[in-house]
Amino acid sequence: MSLIADDWSAISLSLQLATLTILLLLLIGTPIAWWLARTRSRWKGAVGAVVALPIVLPPTVLGFYLLITLGPNGPIGNLTQSLGLGLLPFTFPGLVIASVCYSLPFVVQPVQNAFEAIGDAPLEAAATLRAGPWDRFFFVALPLARPGLITGTILGFAHTIGEFGMVLMIGGNIPDKTRVVSMQIYNHVEAFEYAQAHTLAGGLLVFSFCVLWALYSLGAGRKIWK
Amino acid sequence: MKSFKLFSTLWTALLVIANPAHADEISIAVAANFTAPMQAIAADFEKGSGHKLALSFGSTGKFYAQIKNGAPFELLLAADDETPARLIKEGNAVANSQFTYAIGKLVLWSAKPGLVDDKGSVLKRADISHIAYCNPKLAPYGAAAVEAMKSLALFESLQAKLVEGENITQAHQFVVSGNAEIGFIALSQVYKNGKVNEGSLWIVPSQLYSPIRQDVVILDKGKSHAAAAELAKYLKSDKAKAVIRSYGYEL
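YS: structure for the whole thing
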């Protein structure tokens, strides 16, 4: 069973979505992880809980709230409209924003753990050598947290490829814009095109296995990455 | 030994509670567009018969796949007449138990009052950026919407504005939340007791699409349940028909 043009377009869309999402997540998630790892603020628990929410909540709940808040009557929808950006649901940028929320904990948590594992000693040593806060972050903390960053990148990327419930809620199933692989599989299954569904679903299964395999092999040989 | 006796007494008591002599409990798969009327009908039926109904709402295509794979439904209220016929042909439903319980009406609807005019010319407006409908492969109302747009010779030009819900409930949700200005949905979703609940709508003329005949069928698992046949019969009663009509269906 070969893939049809729609399938390839869905695959390419999923890859673009996951790539953009993970780039944004590294930019946004790393500072959050750093703050969570170092702070003694009483807000630490609350912020950590908000970051972890997507692990617990069903994606359809997230999708539903995003549909409301990004819509014309929601606060973010009002903002994007007044900035002249239009509305985000049913668009590719909308999916990117949704995916960033959805995959946030999968990047923040491994990176935060890696930052916490560094401890105070290397940072204090760097400070005595007159390294400023930025130098300590970029030249001491980040390189030492590399295993966490790699784990976060792989998990965030893979998790975004697999997202479905939220895309269903705010995507609108538009070819080349919001119809990602998981949507396409769902469409095939619902339309009784089981052979095509198998090809795509099998591909996703192999992909997911390879990603996790790489991840766990990496965990075993962590020293190589340090 | 004593604890075993206690356990068996409790177990027997539990069985008695769970199985009252006459009341039966059956599971029913209901097309999403029929959600509101079915809830009203089920309440009346339960009161009158003492049976209990467990209702599941969703797209007919999904129910078909679930029933083929052994889902424990006794009755299917489909959104079309093809799925029940197919289930009978394939031996998953009782022959001769199929009949039309409602004929659905397609409407073009907006949550905003005054936006949709009574000729549907809002479809041609340039400032409409999204039109919701549901997957035409899966949902009869989606197929009817496509047919109507084709009859109006607008399908090609509107293609870029269409956003697709997985079922009719989701198409409605896209419009309610304002993310799509207008959408093709079922009249029953926005109509009660002879009037429109909110917003503005155009009842798409029935000559623009083939009639949406919604059929019910008793499934294989419902054969041994008297309640399934009773409910099917109840759907034909004047009382049930009055409820069905009050939600904007034809009969």
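YS: worth flagging: The interface with chain A takes residues 59, 61-62, 65, 129-130, 132, 135, 137-138, 162-166, 170, 173-174, 177-180 of chain B (CB under 8 Å).
IM: good catch. Also The domain at 106-203 of chain B is CATH 3.40.190.10 (D-Maltodextrin-Binding Protein; domain 2).
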